[in-house]
Amino acid sequence: MYRLLSVRLWIVLLWCIVTIANLYIRPLFPIDETRYAAVAWEMWLRNDFLVPYLNAETYSHKPPLLFWLMQLSWWLFGINDWSLRLISPLFSLAALFLSGAVARSLWPDRERTEALTPLILLGLSFWAIYGTLTMFDMMLAFFALLGIYSLLKLIDSGLSLKYWLLLGLAIGGGVLSKGPVILLHILPVALLAPWWLKIPGFRWKHWYLGVIAAVLIGAMIALCWAIPAGIAGGEDYRKAIFLGQTSGRLVESFAHKLPWWWYLEILPLLLLPWLLLKPLWSGLRQLTSQDWGVRFCLAWAMPVFTAFCLISGKRLHYLLPLVPAMALILARAADQVTEPGRWERAHRVAMAIFGLLGILLILLPRLNEIYHWRAELSLISPLWGSLLVVCAIIFGISNAKTAQDSVLSVCVASLATLITVSGGFFDAQFERYDTKPAAQTIAALMDQNSDIAFYGSKYHGQYHFSGRLKQPITVVPDITDLYAWAGHHQSGYIIVIYKHSESLPESLISYHYPFKGQNIGLISCRTLLANPELKSILKP
């Protein structure tokens, strides 16, 4: 099957299938995707491309590149929900091809490693999931990989000026994507060059001066936005973007929220499904630091991984820029195993597990009727599990004579698993994650000149883009202030969150819908003022 198409065409085909399925299966995911879309929407309404806003307040938590690209997609295709959701997948696709180019630079005499790297990267469940989410991390991963590629091309080209400029562009793009954290992903491997690059008489002075120059170029690119944005956004915003995204976040990161070994515990899960391929284990044992490509990947990944282990503020997606380094090591290990017959049945263990997962999806509604776990589990269509079972059987009985055949089979099955599990989940939970009906209800009330308040400590903008809202929602964190606000806006409505549907009688709620594990309701101010007993029920 591998020989039916070139590697590039396989990558594009599989990427298209996953991306289209993602657009069809799920809505904009709250609260992150809906929040970032809301920021871009407010910038669009204000015609302000310098300062991001969320609910009429400056938004300093993230740089503007993602918001700019969202607005560019609307400029090209009109205001819509789907084009902004292509941004992260497109960066993922670019990173897949770039990973192959990095493999070619590291191992120019190993064409199979170059071919295997993007397939392994695409098949990693962790990468595939975040490749469909409209967040900043896939952009950061791309620019980090672009910086890595620039370093390697500098070696090949004799420190060519154009690759120093490309490195500076990668740093600048990374800063505009997610802030100065891009330096953590590029500088350690650049500074450790004497360890991974053993070239007698290499011009190390020029190397380190070039690295400094590239950092300055990247800083200049970022400052072209930050300086005018800081002036336009005011003093608080200026302090937030120049200090809050650097030193302030580093200080908060050492609050010991998670133990240092947490990433080590979850690392095997991040490498699925490739850890199920037995020949890969054999190939990994054969790798040594004498291979300069292996040394490079270690110098790239290990210092950053160690830093993230020591910093207590941990999130899964922080590791996303390191995933290409893992894929390169796995591809090199797979290429190491060339003995005849080693790959023929290697993929069948993974196929068996995928098939069992498909059977579980088929049986889950029936099991739920017996054991009464959650009512929505009965809504899962058996079609999703059936598709996965068929995929596992087809690839399980196919002959995989080479590493490429085996890797492609597991990659396809891994992506099929992502699609079917997502399809089954949103069959049961779609309405709990779709903010559009509630947002449109709020928009209709605003069109009738009704003011809207949100009772809680923080509103994340989850209704602004979905409802195309043009007015802010007032955030009221205190119950006393809530009644005072209701007294001054008696024609208004209040968005409230409550755990159990029986907590609030339906006669008191103008509109309600389930949201994740809670319920969201709209209460009119007149109803709130007429029922003082609600003070004991409503929780911010």
Automatic annotation (TrEMBL):
Recorded topology in the membrane: Multi-pass membrane protein
Name of the molecule in the record: Glycosyltransferase family 39 protein
InterPro entries (alphabetical): LipidA_mod_glycosyltrf_83 (IPR050297), RgtA/B/C-like (IPR038731)
Key words, A-Z: Cell membrane, Glycosyltransferase, Membrane, Transferase, Transmembrane, Transmembrane helix
Cell compartment(s), UniProt: Cell membrane
Boundaries of every Glycosyltransferase RgtA/B/C/D-like domain copy: 61-225
Chief subcellular location: membrane
